[in-house]
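[scheduler] slot 2 assigned
[scheduler] job type: sequence-to-structure, two independent chains
[scheduler] chain ordering preserved from manifest
[runner] begin chain α
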Amino acid sequence: MKKRVFYTEVSYVLGLIIMAFAAAFTEKANFGMSMVVAPAYILHLKVSQVLPWFSFGVAEYAFQGLLVIATVLVMRRFKLSYLFSFVTAVLYGTLLDLAMSLISGLSAEHFAMRVMWYLLGTVCCSFAVSLFFHTYISPEAYELIVKELAGKYSFNINHVKTAYDCFSVVLGIILSFSFFGFGVFEGVKLGTVICAFINGFLIGRFSKLLEHFFEFKNRFDLERFFM
């Protein structure tokens, strides 16, 4: 079967848009955010009580800025791609606030509707990450640190992703207890735990599916700027 060309730049744009709506649908479900965004969401819940303008999207690129700094410290080097990763985070945060505004009128009163939003958000999140793994443009800091660690130590990228997801769950629980009291789970619930264990698997399946049907190529000669 002849594979169709899928441009990596398109993969980047689609990944951003789908990821933004994935987070918005997950927030609508209220079963707990996906593990990677849970810490930022909890920061949003706490800080927005004092600073109303500190939206979910703003919290995202503020937290990812810290992750970029952590990546520099862990890798013991700075690359221009790390800076572009923060730009991606700002774009994503802006799209996230827009997505939440667009779906704000959707119903989430019934349990079945909440389950549907959760499943949609979880699947979209995994698919978006698989798209990010097929582009040279700097991904969000969540994917950046996974790609950098996997590359430096020759680890399986899906295994590193699963490990990072589990770490995010623990961090989210710590932040929730610290901000809202011991035993209070804000942003980290059963849905978060489920997502942590299946997200890496889903990303791997989506990646294989994409690679089965498409050949990823660059449309523009810009890859050197993101090295």
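[runner] end chain α
[runner] begin chain β
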Amino acid sequence: MKIYTKRGDSGKTDLANGERVDKNDVRVESYGTIDELNSAIGMVSMRKYEDVESYLNEVQNHLHIIQAQLACVEEGRVEITSEHIRLVENWIDDCERELEPLHSFILPGGSEDGAKLHNARAVCRRAERRVVALVKEGNEVGLCLKYLNRLSDAMFVFARLINQREGVEERNPGY
């Protein structure tokens, strides 16, 4: 298979059903932002924290499901399920057992991987906004919004956990 087809040279792309749309179509923007989120997660190296590495590997597979779900408008497609969401909630709960409760906002940053996870959280929130735009146009997205909302919470907790494990103190904003 050739990597370039030249079909996108005019600013159009194919949806999974073969429909040609502009590359800035809200559907393409939504699953493109999911791809960006997946890439941001791929930049995080968690080899010394096997639990978080395992979570992130699974998240990347979930994000591929969301991309397929958002790109495909027919029945019988792959979909994010309530089980995926429960899994993310379980990870959050497991991580929070190790963390001190928050009493105020914190600034994103910290260790290199903690900062990358904070960045992934922000990209996740943007992806969520893009999917909201897709819904506002009348598109069905199943449980994608709920999953992304929970995932951004998970990215925040993962960042806090890694920073704590790395001995990096959380900083509060000054007002």
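[runner] end chain β
[qc] chain β: The CA atoms of residues 96 and 120 lie 19 Å apart.
[scheduler] slot 2 released
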